TrEMBL record:
Broadest EC class assigned to this enzyme: oxidoreductase
Family matches, as SUPFAM superfamilies: FAD/NAD(P)-binding domain
One Pfam family here: Pyr_redox_2
GO MF entries: oxidoreductase activity
Protein name: FAD/NAD(P)-binding oxidoreductase
Chain ranges of the FAD/NAD(P)-binding domain: 7-293
The UniProt record lists the keyword Cell inner membrane: no
PANTHER family: ANAEROBIC GLYCEROL-3-PHOSPHATE DEHYDROGENASE SUBUNIT B (PTHR42949:SF3)
Keywords: Oxidoreductase
EC number: 1.-.-.-
Amino acid sequence: MNNLQCEVLIIGAGPAGLAAALAAGESRQRIVMLDDNPRPGGQIWRDGPAVTLPAIALRYRQAVEALDNFTLLSATTVVAQSGPQQLLYENAQGCGTIDYQRLILCCGARELLLPFPGWTLPGVTGAGGLQAQIKNGLSLQGARVVIAGSGPLLLAVADSVTKAGGKVILLAEQAPMTSLARFASGLWHWPAKVRQSLRLLHRRYRPNSYVLEALGDQRLTAVRVQQGAQIRMIACDRLACGFGLVANIELAMLLGCRIENAAIAVDALQQTSVANLYAAGECTGVGGSELALAEGAIAGYAASGNIVRAQALLAKRSVWQHFAAAVSQTFVLNPTLKTLGAADTFLCRCEDVPLGEIDVKTGWAPTKLHSRCGMGACQGKICAAAARHLFDWPIPQPRVPLIPARLETLALLAPHPNPLPQGEGAGTVPCSGAEVICDRVVAEEECPN
């Protein structure tokens, strides 16, 4: 067990986290950063064998790594809150606790995946999921790829697919042409985005289009696509489908932060409703890397006591907040997407729970009790976001552990941890309601002691 102490603890090493570390590092206070990826950069600056990082990503990484008051724990996950201003973490080397004076959450976001017939077939992934695989070295040489869903990410994924040797045969954007044209006409407010859009624009881009069904026996072979008033059948080898992003707010909810519009609520200096706890980046509302960098720097300066430097960045943040608002207004999801799933279409992929078993009127708790929906290894991160969009259900309260964790890690949560007795069935698990999966534990409903 390794117990650490620091003045400023940062969770997440994406653009917001790196900017926060660089800003807080100027104070000479001890800064510790935890990130679940093997290298800093987050999802947008994900490093890998098939990646050429943008110059700005390299600058931030090198600047942060040069700080002598900075420690990065990579491939490390937060398991739970283990005490006042203390978090329990786990990695391949073991587990431990970190005591902090101020905490900055830069937890990022994940893809919103909505169910449709065939979405669990091999060959079907999230749009960002396919991009992550490409960055990790996946070759798509000769593969026919359909990219579908909504948002600017689709264009970036198409660019990655082409560079990996794949052939993008359709880029289906569900937003209507009228919304896209209005968005494009206002891009001049952000010249860098005009240049980026021109570079990524794809000739296969089709507005008002979405996937109705993925087809195949053992693997994806084709998709049915609604394209305007027409339905097309398109043969393909891969389908990458994502409907925007969902803020990662589980840790913030566990720590008692106020949540608004499914994101962490913050004030002008990025402070949450909890004292000494700040948040920045996509977890406070999806807005892109430029906004994340501004928010991260403000949070870093504010958390380390440099309010003057933090306030100097408010105007810059405002510029990118307006861009984020324009994106949000443009890529509103078509209500038709809520109706694509059939009765036998899985909502919960972990536990194979189909939509036909879901009583929309009941909500999360009864659904979990009757169907195990949301009780798999991902702890509802995929299906809870989908259910919120499909059924307007509230976000479920996260449970401890936040991620599947080793028993030795969870033992640190016990008031008086003792070695587990030997023998079949011996010992207890020191957590409130859990299911043992091999040597790891995932949160579940309350169970008897």
